[in-house]
Design brief:
The chain has 16 helices and 15 strands. It has helices spanning about 25-30, 55-60, 65-80, 90-105, 115-135, 155-160, 165-170, 185-190, 205-215, 240-250, 270-275, 305-310, 330-345, 345-365, 395-405, 425-440, and strands spanning about 35-40, 40-45, 50, 110-115, 140-145, 180, 220-225, 255-260, 280-285, 295-300, 370-375, 380-385, 410, 410-415, 415-420. A hairpin with a 2-residue loop joins strand 1 (about 35-40) and strand 2. Helix 14 runs parallel beside helix 16 (about 425-440). Bound molecules: pyridoxal-5'-phosphate (PLP). Pyridoxal-5'-phosphate binds next to helix 5.
């Protein structure tokens, strides 16, 4: 096994890589490396086994090292390494779009390919604005996001996003016509609720306030994550998403669900839109689409949106947008193999089967020192720790380091621990993941 493990670089060789969303100096002083992965586990370069409690970064839904994906990628790169999708096509891109349309929410059967969640979000926002223009409402350019929302790091996603550190350094570069709904996290009312919180549906009415302020005729779209992940797992109160849908319908505003983390089985159905029975107009995805193996994103649009663009001369390009690597053949091959695995192993609904056990085990942490909230849905979990005075994030980061020492990978954002294991997780691994987290919390002052 060790023969396949890439050795760790010398400390002196760590300088050049400017690491994303990382405390570079802390990391380079105390590197934490992963060198191999299979099933539910990573291995460090030294050969230490680490249980993956976060599916890499919410993306490896079918578990690591899936042979079918490796083989599909290898075969495709041998047959055709690249083909453009501008004014040309290649067969498996069409095959993949049809496969995706077949598992999508009702009539969301038009698919635009990207290479990441951030690109999916920017694509969705551009489609929304261009859609209104195509049907003679070009004045609808305003976008509504939500506080604590995360929609990637493009200028569009950053502007509709609501995480302060992602915004403050770029404040002067935000899109001009953007506003934000208030977020839905309220520990005062909803601490330790199981599944969706029952308090807070009325928070959706905040959209009416923004409409009254800006006028509906200026608003193109509202974008929300059905369940937010990056800001620390934000759940929609019961009825909240339906209410947003009603208000959008009333005012002819498009509703965009950012399903980059909720897509592909995380909530117990293929998409959260299906789980919560609320159909958006546009839906963004990435991550689980290829099981994380090859970068790829997909934006799903209602057919009526696609059709609105299909006018004018037939030889004219309808949407001036796309990426060199949109529908990259190797990514398409990875996605098709991933969908085969999801289907064969029932992974797109497995979170629903496991969710009760997941909830019970997660909530057993209640009562551990400094735990102020626990939240869960599908195979998503969050544990909020009380921040240390004057040192926000320090307590959770220490828990993260302790878990890694104990052979478990978790993710922290601020003082929230977020869990999102691969959907292949077994009972004993749920116990180990949550047991180790509880132990680390108890050992942290
Ligand atoms: C909801 C959501 N949207 C967009 C993104 C950005 O995706 P990427 O990092 O692939 O650009 C993420 C990443 O975590 C996300 O959680």
């Amino acid at each position: 096994m060790n023969a396949r493990i890439t050795p760790a670089p010398a400390k002196t060789d760590l300088d050049a890589f400017w690491m994303p969303f990382t405390a570079n100096r802390q990391f380079k002083d105390h590197p934490r490396m992963l060198a191999r992965a299979e099933g539910m586990h990573y291995w460090t370069p030294e050969g230490r086994e680490v249980l993956d409690g976060v599916a890499g970064l919410w993306c490896v839904n079918a578990g690591h090292g899936r042979r079918e994906i490796t083989e599909a990628v290898t075969k495709q790169i041998g047959a055709m390494d690249f083909a453009p999708s501008f004014q040309m096509g290649h067969p498996i891109a069409f095959q993949l779009a049809s496969r995706l349309a077949a598992i999508a929410p009702p009539s969301m059967d038009r698919v635009f390919f990207t290479n990441s969640g951030s690109e999916s979000v920017d694509t969705a926002l551009k489609i929304a604005i261009a859609y209104h223009r195509a049907r003679g409402q070009g004045q609808r350019t305003r976008l509504i996001g939500r506080e604590k929302g995360y929609h990637g790091v493009g200028f569009g996603g950053m502007s509709v996003g609501g995480m302060v550190n992602n915004r403050k350094f770029f404040a002067s570069a935000m899109l001009p016509s953007v506003d934000h709904l208030s977020h839905t996290l309220d520990i005062g009312h909803n601490a330790f609720s199981r599944g969706l919180p029952h308090w807070g549906m009325h928070l959706a009415n905040d959209l009416e306030r923004l409409i009254a302020l800006h006028d509906a005729s200026t608003i193109a779209a509202v974008i929300v994550e059905p369940i937010g992940g990056s800001a620390g797992v934000l759940l929609p109160p019961v009825g909240y998403l339906k209410r947003l849908r009603e208000i959008c319908d009333k005012h002819d505003i498009l509703l965009i669900f950012d399903e980059v983390i909720t897509g592909f089985g995380r909530t117990g159905k293929p998409f959260a839109a299906l789980t919560f029975e609320v159909t958006p107009d546009i839906m963004t995805t990435a991550k689980g689409l290829t099981n994380g193996a090859i970068p790829m994103g997909a934006v799903f649009a209602q057919r009526k949106i696609y059709d609105a663009f299909m006018q004018g001369p037939e030889n004219a390009i309808e949407l001036f947008h796309g990426y060199t690597y949109s529908a990259h053949p190797v990514a398409c091959a990875a996605a098709l193999a991933t969908l085969d695995i999801y289907e064969r192993e029932g992974l797109l609904t497995r979170a629903a089967t496991l969710s009760h056990e997941w909830e019970e085990t997660l909530h057993s942490i209640r009562g551990a020192p400094h735990v102020v909230d626990i939240r869960n849905y599908g195979l998503i979990g969050a544990v909020d720790l009380e921040p240390r005075v004057g040192k926000p994030g320090a307590r959770a980061f220490e828990v993260f380091l302790k878990c890694f020492e104990k052979g478990v990978l978790i993710r922290v954002t601020g003082d929230t621990v977020a869990l999102s294991p691969p959907l292949i997780i077994e009972s004993k691994q749920i116990s180990r993941l949550i047991g180790t987290l509880a132990e680390a919390i108890r050992e942290t002052a």
